[in-house]
Every structure is written in C-alpha cells, then in structure tokens.
UniProtKB/TrEMBL annotation:
The lineage of its organism: Bacteria, Pseudomonadati, Pseudomonadota, Betaproteobacteria, Burkholderiales. It comes from the Bacteria. This is Uncharacterized protein. It comes from Burkholderia dolosa.
C-alpha cells in the first residue's frame, strides 16, 4: 500500500511536468509569432525618442537665434497656407503647390542647419 502511494506522486509530477513543458512550448511558439510586432514596437519607440530629442535640440538652437526662428515660423505658415490653397483649388495646381511645399520644407532644413552651425 505504501508503495502505491510512493509511485503515484512521481507519475502525477511527471504528467504535470510534461503539461508545463508543453504549455511553455506553446507560449514560446505563440510569442515567436509576435516577434515582428515586438520589433516594430521597439523601433517605433526608439524613433519617437530620437525625434523628441532632435526636436528639443532644434528648439534650443532656434531659441538662441530669434531671426532664424522667425524665418522658420514664416516658412511653417507658408506651408500651411499652401496646403489650404491646394484644398481650395481641388489640388489642381499642376504640381506647383506641391513643389513650393517641398522647397519650403527644404528651406526649413537649411534653417535648422544654419541654427545648429551658428550655435556651435
């Protein structure tokens, strides 16, 4: 009788261990399918952190150079007005408004570079 009692727990523990192992394997395989999702989340988070840091550095450079900051503000307003013009004309401006927006964005990039160079 005592032998039967001693044999039962190892069999029960063995079944439990097999169940736990299969459960872990299932969880790992289902997590493995989400690896790309995890990578995308990590990449997006890193990009957001870098964008915030770059924006803070850019704002600091502009704060030191009020004339460049004013020019940047005018360029931002011009871009917004060009978007409004595109909507008002049903985007039928033969690509000229889009080109103007592209050039204004390029100019803003040059303003950022000028502010950064002048700060260092």
């Amino acid at each position: 009788m005592l032998e039967a009692t001693l044999e039962s727990p190892p069999g029960w523990l063995g079944a439990r261990a097999r169940f736990a192992a299969s459960l872990c394997a299932h969880r790992l395989s289902s997590f493995h399918g989400d690896t790309q999702l995890v990578r995308k989340i990590v990449t997006a988070t890193a990009a957001a952190v870098l964008a915030i840091a770059a924006t803070a550095a850019y704002a600091d450079d502009l704060a030191r150079h009020p004339n460049i900051a004013a020019a940047d503000s005018y360029a931002q307003n011009a871009i917004a007005r060009m978007h409004e013009a595109q909507r008002a004309n049903n985007y039928d401006m033969h690509g000229h408004a889009a080109r103007a927006i592209s050039l204004l964005e390029e100019a803003r990039g040059e303003m950022r570079a000028a502010a950064a160079d002048a700060s260092h």
